């Protein structure tokens, strides 16, 4: 009887250890897979959307989302932030000279596209009420953009801010024009 009890105890311990290591290995494998593809691969349907998911969920920002994917910026913008993204609408991209968007989306223009997109992002959280007339905001690409406030309307450079959406890692200000970085 004593031998049976000891045998059962040892078997229980071994099975318990074995299932824990399997769970740990499964968890490690899942974490490694998520790390391998970046923050954007983390599945979270309960939390507030990050700036990329806000744009991806908007039918008016499909061109921006495609550009962000092409430039390889999805993971960077899915990180903790805070970011302020000035997000041009599809109509803003369509207003560019014919062929501009198609040209920028070519693989040989990835750096130029990334520079333009990074000019639309600040590493800080700027709610609309914190923006002031004449304020200079440093953008991720190293350039400065200027805020204009007149009669309660806000602009960044010459683009109107037409809406704002709060995200888990910052703020998305919807703009009606693509803003271009100053020449370097």
From TrEMBL:
- One Pfam match: Fasciclin
Q: Which residues form the FAS1 domain?
A: 48-179
Q: Which PROSITE patterns match?
A: FAS1, PROKAR_LIPOPROTEIN
Q: Which residues cross the membrane?
A: none
InterPro entries to which the protein is assigned, alphabetical: Adhesion/Biosynth-related, FAS1_dom_sf, FAS1_domain
Q: What name appears for this protein in its UniProt entry?
A: Fasciclin domain-containing protein
Q: Which organism is it from?
A: Nibrella saemangeumensis
């Amino acid at each position: 009887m004593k031998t049976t009890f000891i045998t059962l105890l040892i078997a229980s311990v071994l099975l318990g250890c074995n299932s824990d290591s399997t769970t740990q290995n499964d968890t490690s494998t899942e974490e490694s897979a998520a790390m391998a593809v970046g923050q954007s691969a983390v599945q979270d349907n309960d939390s507030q959307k990050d700036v990329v998911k806000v744009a991806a969920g908007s039918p008016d920002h499909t061109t921006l989302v495609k550009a962000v994917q092409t430039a390889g910026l999805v993971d960077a913008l899915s990180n903790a932030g805070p970011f302020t993204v000035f997000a041009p609408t599809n109509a803003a991209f369509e207003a560019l000279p014919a062929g501009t968007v198609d040209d920028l989306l070519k693989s040989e223009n990835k750096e130029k596209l990334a520079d333009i997109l990074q000019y639309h992002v600040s590493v800080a959280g700027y709610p609309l009420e914190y923006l002031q007339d004449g304020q200079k905001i440093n953008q991720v690409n190293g350039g400065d953009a200027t805020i204009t406030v007149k009669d309660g309307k806000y602009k960044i450079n010459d683009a109107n801010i037409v809406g704002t959406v709060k995200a888990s890692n910052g703020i998305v200000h919807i703009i009606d024009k693509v803003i271009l970085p100053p020449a370097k």
